[in-house]
Amino acid sequence: MLERDIDAALVNEFFEYILDAEVREAFIYLVGAFTCLRSVTWRVKKQGFVRSFRVYQDGKRYFSMMPSQHKINFHFLPPVLRDSIYRKDAISKMFSSFDDSSHKDEEHWAIDIKTIEDARLLLRALNLK
Fold first, then answer.
1. In degrees rounded to 5, what are phi and psi of residue 22?
2. Mean pLDDT value of segment 20-47
């Protein structure tokens, strides 16, 4: 669901930054899904060049999406990994772009979302209510 004070102009800026039409469609799909799901809240933040769409569950920042011009980089963050909600082998099999080497000690996982099919697969994998 939406946090109370979402900066709609910033969400629009994130959307417009994406150049690839398929990635834009995936962004719309994911933003809409995270807005409708009762189990999560989200907010946006821009830190310099980093555009961050932050997703929280039970007060913990579990996921981040970072849109770029040709993909959305989706991160499973340390709290969700420590809580052992998802299995690394299952997620890595689902997404060929899976990467756990961007931080030491497998502190988080990342995948690239480039199509609406990727976005749908991600939501099925997350299994959020």
1. -65, -40
2. 93
